[in-house]
Amino acid sequence: MAGNTSVPGASVVSRSLALLFAFDDQHRRLTLSELARRADLPLPTAYRLVGELVAGGALVRRGSGEYVVARRLWQVGLLAPVETGLREVAAPFLNDIHAATRATVHLAVRERTEVLYLERLSGRASVPVVSTVGSRLPLHATGVGKVLLAHAPDDVVEAALAQLGRVTPYTVTQPARMREQLDRIRRDGYATTVEEMTLGACSVAVPIRAGGAEGRVVAAVGIVVPSLKRDRPRLVAALQVAAQGIGRSLG
């Protein structure tokens, strides 16, 4: 929910952005009334602005009456530096890991208190996952998310610890236990999850540091498998090699 856009003084731009930001991974198709509610706008205002967004090529109205994000807006989003540079640099390394494991491979960055998935490679042998390219998931319930949270600023960590929602029966929801895990991630250099986001799926992830081992953590690369009992050391080693290669390439 965008919020605060119905108050007097809110600009046309802020209200239009609220309508666009009403879409997310769980809300890919919205009716006009749903758009107005999620953007916190009066229905007549939403009707006028949505019409302008459709005319401008930012939204598309389906035959059902629902609205979706237009391809033109998606193309603009791909111009963001985090998309173009990082994805292009990481692509060969991600492909190598996927070819060697046939498991789901993730490339992700942090956006506030969520993990944003920039890339996902999977195949028929991969474990079912809920992530998609462009989707956002809780930091505390995913391998790549835990890595990014472990290296996030203190205010982000505190905000994330204040909203440890339960996704599965195995999701860590106790702040003290999560702090212990974050300390261990910083010490060991990798994070793991065991059915914390999806039942039947485990993950391991490592940080990507721009420029090398002492650089700033800018992203995370991870892999999702049915179990980590036997192959964790091998997977961690493969991910660390890939992360180092990506980090050096970023410069």
TrEMBL record:
Gene3D superfamilies given for it? 3.30.450.40, Winged helix-like DNA-binding domain superfamily/Winged helix DNA-binding domain
Q: Which residues are in the IclR-ED domain? A: 72-251
UniProt keyword Ligase, yes or no: no
Pinpoint the HTH iclR-type domain residues.
Answer: 10-78
> Which Pfam families does this one have?
HTH_IclR, IclR_C
Which residues lie in coiled coils? none
Report what the protein is called: IclR family transcriptional regulator
Source organism of this protein record:
Nocardioides ginsengisoli
